[in-house]
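Table S2 (text version). Query chain:
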Amino acid sequence: MEQPRDNAGMTTTNHQLQDLLDNNKRWAEETEAQSPGFFSRLLKQQTPQYLWIGCADSRVPANELVDLLPGELFVHRNVANVVVHSDLNCLSVMQFAVDQLKVRHVIIVGHSNCGGVVAALRDLRVGLVDNWLRHVQDVRHMHQAWLDTIPDANRVNALCELNVLEQARNACHTTVVQDAWTRGQEVVVHGWVYGLHNGLLEDLQISAARVEDIEPAYRRSLALVKARHTG
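Corresponding C-alpha cell output:
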C-alpha cells in the first residue's frame, strides 16, 4: 500500500532514509559474502581490545579510521571528546568496557578544527551545548597564558590537543581505571588526535598504565604539544 504523501519534503525525507536502508542491505550482503558467517560469529561474542572515546563529529568514523571491523572497537562519542567525573553515560561505557569486556586500551581521540573546541576558544554561543563546552573552556583557562603567546592560526588545534591531554588525565583518575589498576588489571590510557586535513592519527605520547605514570606522561606530552605549536 502506497504511503500518503503530505508534502514534497516528507517524500524526499522518506527517500533519503530508504537510501540508508538500501546501503545497509548492500553492506550486510557484501560483508557476509567476503566473510561467510561473520554475523553469526558476532552474535557469540564481543571481544574488543580497545575503547575509543572520541568526538561526535560525523567526519571522524572510529572503526574506519583504524580499519577495524564491528566487534573489534568499543566506542563512546560526545561533543569534543570530554571525559568528566559527572558524566554517568561516559563512565558507564568505560566501566562496561573495562570490567566486562576487559579492554586493554582506553584511547581518548580528539581531532583538528573541532567545532566544539572552536566555540570554547572563541566564546561562541551555540545553545545548550555551551554548558557542556564549559569543560573545554576550563582547559582553555588552564592554559590561557601559553595560548596567548602562540600565533592565532595555531590556537584551535593547540587547544584540541591540550583538551585530549586533559581528558586522558581525567580518564586515568576515574574510579573505573583506578579500580582496575588496583586489582592488577592491564589497562593503558592513551591520547590521540586525528587530522581532518590528512586522515592521519597522531599519538600525543600520553600513555599511562598505572597511577605513577599519570603526571610524568602528562608533563611529557604537554611539553611536546607546546614545542610543536610555538613559533
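Notes on Table S2: Residues 8-34 form the longest helix (27 residues). The longest strand covers residues 201-208.
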